[in-house]
Amino acid sequence: MDKKLKVGLLGGTGFVGQRLVTLLADHPYFEIAVIAASENSVGKTYFEAVNNRWKLDIPMPDSVKSIVIKNIDQVDLISSEVDFVFCAVNMPANEIREIEEKYAKAETPVISNNSAHRHTSDVPMVIPEINADHFELIQVQRRRLGTKRGFIVAKPNCSIQSYVPAISALMQYKPKKILVCTYQAISGSGKIFSDWPEINDNVIPYIGGEEEKSEQEPLKIWGHIENDMVVNAVDPIISTQCIRVPVSDGHLAAVFVSFEDKPSKETILQHWASFQGKPQLLKLPNAPNQFLTYFEENDRPQTGLDRNIEKGMGISIGRLREDSLFDYKFVCLSHNTLRGAAGGAVLTAELLMAEGYLTSK
């Protein structure tokens, strides 16, 4: 495209914000015009604000180093300089809801990495390959907000994006019960090993709020639109345990599932191999060519080996076999800060642009 859309990053100095910076530095559709953060960083260049807190193993892009940080509360000023914003702020949920709605009402679309609006009835919460049809709610939301182009779209929790895609490929067989144990990387808490010495040689069997999100959010993704809102799916019943493990990146999930109409193992593998969505059909820049990859080896997927499959945007699956209590069990893996966070948000923006929801002001 000739003219790139101008992007604002709200919360651009944090872990997800840093990922967004790297993904957008040379993006074919988007360019970073504004980075905003809390008052502590305002007035500093991005390099000054982040240099000692850069958490990624790839360099900070030169193109952002001299950008001067603005205050996220400067809604009108920032909105005048951008076409849309990504929101990855670290604030109380009520404050996030308020700031995201302020930007939307200022006619600046918001793609949110936060949980604050995930269960707002007219806010789509989207995995682009799975429920892009929920974008239809944007028109409903605009009527509520009184906007012509402003809206909010939320990205779901990173923990569900390892196993929800694998189940989504099999929805025609009516999954009824799902048990999932997720083994989640420390980057999901915004930390690296030097920040968190207690995690070394340790496993923590609790992540605050994560199990509730893992059990509830898939039901909205699998829901349908009725009376101008998403009606959550009733089935399947989901039970989860979420465990923090000493891994830098990558959320691994052990999945157990029973179906109303049990498919064969061969049928499951065929569905996984062929499953794709609009991002693949449109060949969007951050869309994985192969969304779901199944490994035949008994010891795959492995977090260290496979989290970066399809540049961190693919889902890895392995160890599919029948189970004595459920119909089947298998293992899934996703990169939590790419597919699960920043990359998923950028792919959502790419699809929103392709569908005509994101345009130049």
Automatic annotation (TrEMBL):
Question: By its UniProt entry, which InterPro entries does this protein fall under?
Answer: ASADH-related, Asp_semi-ald_DH_pep-lack, NAD(P)-bd_dom_sf, Semialdehyde_DH_NAD-bd, Semialdhyde_DH_dimer_dom
Q: Which residues form the Semialdehyde dehydrogenase NAD-binding domain?
A: 6-138
**Which Gene Ontology MF annotations are present?**
aspartate-semialdehyde dehydrogenase activity; NAD binding; NADP binding; protein dimerization activity
Going by the entry's taxonomy, the superkingdom of the source organism is recorded as Bacteria
**Does the UniProt entry include the keyword rRNA processing?**
no
- Chain segments annotated as coiled-coil in the UniProt record: none
Q: Name one GO biological process term.
A: threonine biosynthetic process
Ordered alphabetically, the record's keywords are:
NADP, Oxidoreductase
SUPFAM superfamilies in the record, alphabetically?
Answer: Glyceraldehyde-3-phosphate dehydrogenase-like, C-terminal domain, NAD(P)-binding Rossmann-fold domains
Active site per the UniProt annotation: 158, 251
Write out the similarity annotation.
Belongs to the aspartate-semialdehyde dehydrogenase family.
Q: What is this protein called?
A: Aspartate-semialdehyde dehydrogenase
The source organism is Clostridium tagluense
Tell me the gene name.
asd
